[in-house]
């Protein structure tokens, strides 16, 4: 199998804007790529035969896939569960409507794990089909990595954007909490559920975010970014020693390359309060899942996987005080995170413990992501490194809440630096 | 028309637990009350003919109405809009499933304004049918006030629990943000959308909250509450002078009665940062509504009211920076609110500018509620006072985030004090 070649959103839009291509042709190319590739990858649960194509809008001609945890009024929405097979919501998710408003073509729905938790779907990793693409936004990551579409939308409650992006060797961006609207997703844990974006590179995903939101997020060739002014923290979290040797080596190479490129590197020890906040993620998620998915357990018990039922029941059995404690720990964590970003601009940490695990039974582990989901801080998986076997390794960059623009700008610079070093 | 007589949840549960009544009889009584009263009040959009009745659970026999902005899998869910006439969601809202798990009987759906915004439904005020019951939880408030059911569930994004409770002369309780789950409501502004409860009195609504959540929230006859230990702040917000004379008089009477009962009264001037936070509510709400209801504007434009379309378009036209500014103002407000509660325990302020306005075209004004919705602090409308014409006036009590138990306990004490003084 040849190495997958993602489509550059930036290049595609340049081609469109210079008249070399046009929306109908762009969408037709995506349709054709899905037709030829998706039998092997299984990134899509549904593909539109005659997708609506706009003209003259920022995202005209850009065919995007929508994680099938997000509602679409004109396409089946299954939430990765047989319970919702053939389900057709009355209206779209907010971010889907936003994408349509900006001119994007919704070309289909991408595979999600069951309810965006851990029970995997059929998608395989485009870099090695015997490995998981990661989850829960499995199809959104694989569809971009395999070069079927230039951009997709996913969600993250633990590590469901960063991890599949890392495993599939593309950029996955989880914006600051509520930068993108989550209304119309099948909620699992509403205070964690965050909409995120996938594209080939950091520059591409930043452009996608910019055009989707109307915020100034694109990575311009901006001479004002002087590496020496950027303080990069190597985040020595308590989980760091548990990362694979390949990941540890990649992170070391990344830090060395950043330093060589002139960035200021500052090792950051993990404050106890953030270790505690990370530990609060699971109980908080379980309690909210017990509430949010309580109706499903009551109505569709026989059709839910054992691990989904287990987490819902765990949440329902929890004392409300345990939830309150988790929320308090999270709040203290957010204050500590804000303080931490007084001294640094960007934190670097693994996007995942290593490359995509072999097999499809597990979508991997979110232990390096869930703290930042809980903190609401923007984070991105920078693709650059890989193992000797050619499996991608992602480096996660994190910034202060609301500092999405700087995150994307610095991460794009780092991506170039890392690729040279990889 | 005789003065409406709400049903006491506490008395009903005592009767059940002492064997004087039983769940089938209790539910039958609610059905009969709806049959005889709701032609005049129009609190319900749907009533179950054969509602499911449990036995042996905390809320067994308690027939409750669910605001029709919350999903029910077994009943039509219309969100107050012709767009969703006859809509049947695949699953229940989280709080509906929670109520079922605790044994409550979902007896029907109650009238909401369109999408829980301002376009009114047909419900009238049980105290005077030529007046609005308030909104957006119009039917939930009126159904309790008219004595049809002992408790109902509603939602508040601006003042949609406190205001109709006040207008209808019952207790309306908006818990701390996320104390009750909002998943499965038709979201309008997710960072504001809060599930709340209605019952005849503060003691009743506290008991409902206790049995629904499993939290220790009921107002026990607790001799440990010494009024002298409770610092009550009279909140002199910048809106206070705009309240009706009747409301200003009621508030003065309330404060004097509380002082006479031994509570410590402390006048509290509104910090500028909270005035600014109140002003942030509207842009924040509009921006989020522009996102959350964007799909509906795109798909169902012709079926939405003008004022709903206006707010969605207003939100969609806003610069994202204005939203970020509103969120920052809200965050600063939350910090100032926390500091304010270092010096006092409970704030008192009007639940509404006055009694229910005449006519059904307007559901009244949330200007005294929206700050506390945005702050996420628990608040409750204490029923006790009324105008010379017999229209109810509510006094709003507010406590620190997470301090729901103290709020309910003190409010129950104040309710007795106020009733004696009224």
TrEMBL record, chains A, B:
InterPro entries: Amidase (IPR000120), Amidase_dom (IPR023631). It comes from the Bacteria. Residues 55-408 form the Amidase domain. PANTHER family: GLUTAMYL-TRNA(GLN) AMIDOTRANSFERASE SUBUNIT A (PTHR11895:SF151), TRANSAMIDASE (PTHR11895). Belongs to the amidase family. This is Amidase. The lineage of its organism: Bacteria, Pseudomonadati, Pseudomonadota, Alphaproteobacteria, Hyphomicrobiales.
């Amino acid at each position: 199998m040849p190495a997958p070649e993602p489509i550059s959103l930036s290049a595609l839009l340049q081609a469109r804007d210079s008249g070399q291509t046009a929306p109908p042709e762009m969408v037709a190319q995506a349709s054709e790529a899905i037709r030829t590739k998706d039998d092997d990858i299984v990134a899509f649960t549904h593909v539109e035969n005659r997708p609506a194509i706009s003209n003259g809008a920022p995202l005209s001609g850009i065919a995007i896939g929508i994680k099938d945890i997000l509602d679409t009024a004109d396409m089946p929405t299954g939430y990765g569960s047989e319970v919702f097979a053939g389900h057709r919501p009355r209206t779209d998710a907010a971010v889907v409507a936003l994408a349509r408003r900006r001119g994007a073509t919704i070309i289909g729905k991408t595979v999600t794990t069951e309810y965006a938790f851990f029970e995997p779907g059929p998608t395989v990793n485009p870099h090695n089909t015997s490995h998981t693409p990661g989850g829960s936004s499995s199809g959104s990551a694989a569809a971009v990595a395999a070069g079927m579409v230039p951009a997709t939308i996913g969600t993250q409650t633990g590590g469901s954007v960063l991890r599949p992006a890392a495993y599939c060797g593309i950029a996955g961006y989880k914006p600051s909490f509520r930068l993108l609207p989550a209304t119309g997703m099948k909620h699992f844990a509403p205070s964690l559920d965050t909409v995120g974006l996938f594209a080939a590179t950091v520059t591409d995903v930043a452009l996608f975010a910019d055009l989707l939101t109307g915020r100034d997020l694109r990575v311009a060739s901006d001479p004002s970014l002087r590496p020496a002014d950027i303080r990069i923290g190597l985040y020595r979290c308590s989980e760091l020693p548990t990362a694979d040797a390949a990941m540890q080596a990649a992170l070391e190479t990344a830090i060395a390359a950043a330093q060589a490129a002139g960035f200021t590197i500052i090792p950051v020890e993990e404050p106890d309060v953030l270790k505690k906040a990370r530990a609060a993620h699971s109980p908080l998620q379980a309690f909210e899942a017990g509430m949010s998915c309580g109706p499903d357990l009551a109505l569709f018990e026989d059709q839910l996987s054992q691990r989904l039922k287990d987490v819902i029941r765990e949440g329902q059995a929890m004392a409300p005080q345990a939830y309150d404690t988790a929320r308090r720990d999270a709040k203290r964590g957010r204050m500590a995170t804000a303080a931490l970003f007084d001294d640094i601009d960007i934190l670097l940490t693994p996007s995942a413990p290593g490359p995509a695990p072999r097999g499809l039974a597990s979508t991997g582990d979110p232990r390096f992501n869930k703290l930042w989901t809980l903190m609401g801080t923007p984070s991105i998986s920078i693709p650059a490194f890989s193992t000797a076997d050619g499996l991608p390794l992602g480096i996660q960059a994190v910034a202060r809440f609301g500092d999405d623009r700087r995150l994307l700008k610095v991460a794009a610079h780092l991506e170039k630096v890392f690729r040279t070093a990889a």
